[in-house]
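=== RUN LOG ===
request id: a7f3
mode: sequence -> structure
chains: 1
length: 70
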Amino acid sequence: MEGEFQSGNSIKPLNPKSVASVVRYGKLRFPLSHRATGHSLVYNQLYLFEGLQNYSSGIIHHVRLTGTFE
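=== RESULT ===
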């Protein structure tokens, strides 16, 4: 499933560039007039030892919101 973590012996890490990191925001009951973009990452832990399961995170988005809500 897209975006979910994976663990096991044969994992296929997700491509963090496959989805945009965009947040639209604004005041309550007003249009979402602000837009912020950021970047995304996938964390992987691959083990060489038998018995340990490899791990790949889901896509993690990092977006910084700026501006004021006046």
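=== NOTES ===
Residues 23 and 36 are 5 Å apart (CA to CA).
The radius of gyration is 17 Å.
=== END ===
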